[in-house]
Write a structure and sequence with these properties.
The complex is a heterodimer of chains A (688) and B (466). Chain A is mostly beta strands. In chain B, 54% of the residues lie in helices and 3% in strands. In chain B, the strands form two sheets. A two-stranded antiparallel ribbon of chain B has the order 1-2. In chain B, strands 3-4 form a two-stranded antiparallel ribbon. In chain B, a hairpin with a 2-residue loop joins strand 1 and strand 2 (219-222). The longest helix of chain B has 16 residues, at 371-386. The two termini of chain B are 25 Å apart. Chain A binds chain B through residues 5-7, 159-164, 233, 250, 255, 257-262, 264, 271-273, 275-277, 304, 332-333, 359-362, and chain B through 74, 80-81, 83-84, 87-88, 90-93, 95-96, 99-100, 103, 107, 132-135, 335-341, 344-345, 348, 383, 388-393.
Chain lengths: 688, 466
């Protein structure tokens, strides 16, 4: 996770992928999933030890359990789920109620597996850099060791564009994490700790002195720290620092249409030249009655050319009884946007307003007119147990909906039209209740839970818009609820004279099939990696095996009556595997025994017609079966000699393709290749 | 300077005879203010008093040597300016780069150096509209500064071997067999000779010589494959010329010093003040001094012609000088005005730094005084006098300044003082009376009539000329 200069890039929300599990199979992954499942909405008891970099116990360290903000959420106040101090032997105990796991964002891409941690345990002690881990990192006995880091203070100085020190700038630690210098490289081991200021219980902000200086200690040496600078005299900005003695590093990422993209990372001692800020003032009113609206939160949502998400909700204020607001610290530049978020009891649409940049540094005015909608309220529950669920909610409506046509909040401009949503979107409360603001007319409401166990797309089969197209762009406002992602989808008619429309949704856990795994000698087999045990929406093609089974059996969950599920089982250590397609009707007693067979291996060398090897081509195999749909195995790459080695689940006929810019797309390596169990076959030189 | 005979057996009068105070041509506040408004970005009262006391030689020498400013400069100026420039480039926000240059103009100890950099920016007018690369724009700007007073060959060579001009004038697409004439045309028409001193054929041949000059990464590159190494005939000379040969041919051409003389006089002399013989003589001097720009600038600034009555108040002040000059003269040092805001005002007055309107640059002169720009000048004058240019809204202590200069702080004396400080006293008694009446009129929006008076002085017709 890096910051981009000028663009003030790097939202907290974008950091979340880095906190989630990625990459190769991990022995702890299955256990991690289990721990998460156990912890969901449950009381967690964590115990452990705080040690220094040499492994010696540290007494008197502060240990806090802190919640992780969900996508788009903003922690406005320092919070801790629990706090304690380590004893003389460095030991601590914490008990807290685990918040629900965070639903992953589809935009995070298929490389991210599983929900992110919803809390972290953080330790700090004077003279050291903080340590943090997620509760799931505890060992089998629930013991968590937090190793404090050696420290190197950050000594910064904030200057204005005239080179003068700026006093009174709030410097807020936004996140701390491992050093990640090359954005193209894989994420380093470890996680980012967002909102470190909350985690450690440090003052909300460190304020620059008369010389513009500030010092931050306790974040650790050799770490990447993101800071926010907020002040009346300077425009809001985010900067990246590495706690290392070094000069600022400038990385040219490339040339784009609007200019050069550069990333700047400062060393532990640096000067920062801050552009001036200017206040945005205005009045929020009801668009129809022109009555002023109190209690409307006004936030920055885009700063200059930085993408909206990068600045989301950073600066905020609330309208007074006369609807007036004054948002300080907006950078003086064109392209700023603010968003007005109505209060909890105000059935109005969220509205984004562009802020014009006039000459000078005086306040700029951006009045806001808000339009009223209709409350849509209800409860989200588990279909089987009736338990309330905290889920992410979103709705769309038809582009032809006449009730949206005159509303600037739904203004389509030249784009596809976007439903106005509050920052962070809508979520149901722990008791399952929710309330959102929608326009009259037909809306499509979708609920997506954090658990991966529920069926997806339930209800979409009844909606005309999805009949021929799972993603009916051109019919609906964005974001369009995706049947492959959302668990429950319903179309609702919202009358234009209604105060509130009720709509309850249920998430369906579906049916389970108990799967037992045996080896070729019919012995139960544990420690196998599995894909397809849950109704994942991540395409098989790009995913990897992340769930390792501790036992020799498991439940494949979330089956609907007509679902066909690809189930992949693989044990590389023992060279065994199996791919199969499972349908409820085929397993009437809901019990299935799967015998793994020796994996098949195919090798080849890919060259051009002149015999020169293709290096780094992506090679991917797909099962040639109508049930397989889009099921492809994870890709491999050709090496420096153009060779690849592909391990295949035995017993299927495969097609094998290679792709990459060198071959202008995708070419067929083998149209039909049967993978005999235990076979190893070399296709020799394949000229493509 | 020695007189240079031009096509005549009788010695021609020396048009650039040095100025010596005396008679009708006293070394007074008017002339000191004139010097700093033309050759720098105005002066504070103490700087004016210093030069008044030390005489014109010392005053001009300070400007030439880059040490004219004693007030408002900051410690480690170059280091701070570098930091600001670097941060501006990294922000990739062109407004920040404009602000950086304004910072240099306001706080550099060498205002003449910045004036010359501005002159060269107009001469080699390159726009970021096409480049979209602040690294290159800043690098070119630094060349203008580094070689501002150097022999012109050094500046021309540096600029022509720098990616900014090459990209701007399509050098990378000028290749053997498919010449692109843009760079060849402008190097002759704008940079060295001027229209009428070359033929279309010369341009075609010059373009061939320049084939292969290109950009690789962020630097100059000679691409041998793309170079046309055949025989060329340029301005009557034949040879296997390449780009460097072309530059030498142009530098040796008699039209080159005249073009340079014209450029320098356009910058420092009033409208119609240096034509014909004056230009010819300066051109001849340049030729005999190896096109030494520093020599020419010094010659102009020390001349009787420069300090003559006819040359004072006969040049329309450009947007940059109009905005930065009074900010320095009124000692807006602590807090300083926001350079970002000043560059916005410069733009509102019609000049967007790093974005000249075309290859020919800004024509300047009367073109600056559009109706819109005149209104903007008035508004800027008011914002400046009211102290609305910094984050903390700090009005200048006008009465304190007047008192510090040993004047009474009443309205009449205050107006007289600021007329001297800002304009060398060029507003006459009737104009001053008018300002006093308007500033003292009840119901004026500002509490202090002197603030209104200063705004009126800066918005006066006299203030538009320097």
């Amino acid at each position: 996770m890096r910051l981009q200069a000028g663009a003030t890039a790097g939202s907290d929300m974008r950091m979340q992928p880095a906190m989630q599990m990625k990459g190769p199979p991990d022995a702890g992954a299955a256990r991690l999933v289990e721990i998460r499942r156990r912890q969901q909405d449950q009381v967690v008891h964590i115990h452990g030890r705080v040690v220094d970099p040499d492994g010696k116990a540290v007494a008197g360290a502060k240990v806090n359990a802190v919640p992780m903000p969900a996508e788009g959420e903003m922690l406005l106040q320092p919070v801790a789920l629990a706090r304690t101090t380590s004893g003389v032997d460095g030991r601590f105990e914490l008990t807290f109620r685990q918040p629900p796991d965070l639903p992953r964002n589809p935009a995070d891409g298929p490389a991210v597996a599983g929900p992110g941690p919803s809390s972290l345990i953080v330790a700090s002690a004077k003279g050291f850099g903080i340590a943090w881990k997620e509760p799931a990192a505890a060992d089998a006995k629930g013991d968590l060791t937090l190793t404090l880091a050696a420290d190197l203070p950050i000594d910064g100085r904030v200057l204005d564009l005239e080179g003068r020190p700026v006093k009174g700038v709030n410097v807020i630690v936004d996140s701390v994490g491992p050093v990640h210098l090359n954005p193209g490289a894989p994420e380093p081991a470890g996680q980012y700790l967002p909102y470190a200021r909350h985690a450690e219980g440090r003052p909300e902000a460190i304020v620059t002195d008369a010389m513009g200086r500030f010092r931050i200690t306790g974040l650790g040496r050799e770490r990447e720290v993101h800071l926010q600078l907020i002040g009346r005299r300077v425009g809001f900005t985010r900067i990246a620092v590495i706690t290392r003695v070094m000069k600022p590093m400038v990385e040219n990422v490339g040339q784009v249409v609007v200019g050069r993209v550069q990333i700047v990372t400062y060393g532990a001692k640096f000067d920062y030249l801050a552009a001036p800020g200017r206040p945005v003032v205005g009045v929020a009113k009801d668009a129809r009655t022109h009555e002023p609206m109190a209690g409307v939160q006004v936030r920055s949502t885009a700063l200059g050319l930085a993408p909206a998400a990068d600045a989301g909700g950073v600066l905020y204020c609330t309208t007074d009884e006369k609807g007036r607001f004054r948002l300080e610290g907006m950078p003086k530049q064109s392209g700023n946007l603010i968003v007005a978020v109505p209060g909890d009891a105000q059935p109005y649409f969220t509205r984004i307003v562009a802020v014009k940049d006039a000459t000078g540094l005086g306040p700029v005015t951006a009045d806001i007119e808000l339009h009223r909608g209709v409350w849509v309220a209800g409860k989200i529950t588990d279909k089987k147990t009736g338990q309330p669920l905290s889920v992410r909610l979103a709705y769309s409506t038809y582009l032809t909906n006449k009730h949206t046509l005159g509303l600037p909040e739904f203004d389509r401009g030249v784009g596809p039209g976007v439903v106005p949503m509050p920052p962070g979107g809508y979520r149901s409360a722990p008791d399952g209740s929710y309330r959102l603001v929608a326009p009259p007319g037909k809306i499509i409401l979708a609920a997506t839970g954090s658990s991966e166990d529920y069926r997806r797309g339930v209800g979409s089969e009844k909606i005309e818009a999805y009949k021929d197209n799972p993603n009916p762009v051109g019919q609906l406002y964005q974001p369009i609820p995706q049947p492959k992602v959302a668990n429950a989808i319903a179309e609702i008619q919202v009358p234009d004279d209604a105060q509130t429309v009720r709509a309850d949704l249920q998430l369906d856990p579906g049916e389970s099939i108990h799967v037992a795994i045996i080896d070729p000698e019919s012995k139960p087999l544990s420690g196998v990696y599995v894909r397809g045990n849950k109704p994942e929406f991540v395409p098989m093609a790009s995913g990897s095996f992340v769930t390792r089974l501790e036992d020799a059996s498991f439940d494949a969950v979330g089956f609907g009556p007509d679902d066909v599920r690809s189930l992949l089982l693989r044990d590389d250590e023992r060279g065994l595997g199996k791919a199969l397609f499972v349908r409820l009707d085929d397993v009437p007693n809901r019990r299935l025994t799967v015998r793994l067979l020796p994996l098949a291996v195919v090798t080849a060398r890919l060259t051009d017609p002149g015999g020169h090897p293709f290096v780094g081509l992506s090679v991917q195999a797909a099962i040639r079966d109508k049930l397989a749909g889009d099921m492809m195995l994870p890709a491999v790459k050709t090496d420096a000699a153009g060779r690849f080695r592909y391990t295949l689940m035995p017993g299927w006929d495969y097609s094998i393709e290679a792709s990459g810019p060198e071959v202008n797309g995708t070419v067929v390596v083998a149209f039909s290749f049967y993978a005999d169990p235990g076979s190893t076959r070399d296709l020799g030189d394949v000229r493509i | 300077m020695q007189s240079v005979p031009i096509n005549s057996t009788a010695p021609a009068p020396d048009m650039w005879e040095p100025y010596e105070p005396g008679g009708q041509s006293l070394w007074d506040v008017r002339r000191v203010v004139h010097l700093h408004r033309r050759a720098g970005f105005a002066a504070t009262w103490s700087e004016i008093q210093r030069d008044l006391k030390d005489g014109p030689q010392a005053g001009v020498t300070r400007l030439i040597k880059g040490g004219a400013r004693v007030e408002g400069t900051i410690e480690n100026f170059e280091q701070t300016a570098d930091e600001i420039g670097e941060a501006a480039v990294l922000s990739d926000n062109p407004d920040r780069l404009k602000a950086w240059w304004i910072f240099r103009m306001l706080f550099s100890p060498d205002p003449l150096g910045e004036r010359l950099a501005l002159m060269w920016h107009n001469h080699f007018a390159t726009s970021n509209l096409k480049l979209r690369d602040l690294v290159l724009m800043r690098r070119q700007n630094d060349l203008f500064r580094t070689f501002a007073r150097a022999p012109f060959a050094k500046l021309l060579g540096a600029v022509m071997h720098d990616p900014a001009i090459l990209i701007w004038l399509d050098a990378p697409s000028n290749v053997k067999g498919k010449p692109n004439e843009n760079l060849a045309r402008e190097v002759m028409e704008l940079f060295t000779l001027g229209v009428g001193n070359y033929s279309e054929r010369d341009i075609k041949e010059a373009a061939r010589a320049l084939t292969g000059w290109s950009v690789a990464g962020a630097g100059f590159a000679r691409q041998a494959d793309a170079h046309d190494d055949g025989q060329k005939q340029i301005l009557g000379r034949k040879g296997l010329f390449d780009g460097d040969d072309l530059l030498n041919i142009l530098l040796e051409h008699p039209a080159c010093p005249r073009r340079l003389a014209w450029r320098i006089c356009s910058e420092f002399m009033g409208e119609g003040m240096a034509e014909g013989p004056a230009l010819d003589q300066l051109a001849a001097g340049l030729r005999s001094h190896e096109l030494d720009v520093g020599w020419a600038v010094q010659t102009v600034l020390r001349s009787k012609l420069f300090f003559s009555d006819a040359n004072i108040g006969t040049k329309i002040i450009g947007p940059v000088e109009f905005v930065t000059g009074p900010a320095h003269a009124l000692e807006l040092f602590d807090p300083p005005p926001s350079t970002l805001v000043l560059s916005e005002w410069v733009e509102r007055l019609g000049l967007s730094l790093f974005y000249p309107p075309n290859v020919g640059g800004w024509t300047g002169g009367r073109g600056w005084l559009t109706t819109r720009a005149i209104i903007a000048r008035g508004n800027y004058a008011a914002a400046l006098a009211r102290g609305e240019l910094s984050v903390s809204d700090s009005p200048p202590d006008l009465r304190g300044m007047a008192r510090h200069a040993g004047r009474d702080a009443n309205l009449r004396d205050g107006i007289a003082f600021f007329n001297e400080l800002l304009l060398g006293g060029r507003i006459g008694p009737r104009g001053l009376d008018d300002i006093r009446v308007r500033a003292g009129r009840p119901g004026a929006p500002d509490a202090d009539p002197l603030t209104i008076a200063v705004a009126l002085i800066l918005a006066s017709p006299e203030a538009q000329l320097g």
